[in-house]
Amino acid sequence: MAYVLPRLLTKKEVDHAIKTSEDRVLVLRFGRETDAVCRQMDDILVKAQGELENMASIYIVDIDAVPVYTEYFDINLIPATVFFFNAQHMKVDWGTPDHTKFIGSFKTKQNLIDVVETIYRGAMRGKLIVNSPLDPRDVPKYSLLYKDI
After folding, report:
1. CA–CA distance from 6 to each of 49, 71, 149 (Å)?
2. pTM of the entire structure?
């Protein structure tokens, strides 16, 4: 199903997508095509794409193809989903230590739709961080390990 979603293969393509998305939530799924959880996430993205077409653009980014962004967003676990609005990195308070990205796959298509709608509404009001609309049980739990601190 991931073949339906557009791919960004270079840093220049990712930069262009971030800079040119106006009044829409930009959803970037970082991961690998061969990973089972990434494929599950891609299926959810494809199913939600039709309902989100007026408020979001969804792209797949291979972490091996764009290591600059993989390092910049500190992506160690995949899939990782990052959100932008008008070239601004949007943060979501998931109830986890990291507000910059969503780690793992959304449980349902509706969860993804709810998150994108919340980001869209918050961004239209000028917010850069919004509270997660998801039930805390639907947010994957993980621990952050800091190196060289």
Report:
1. 11, 22, 38
2. 0.88
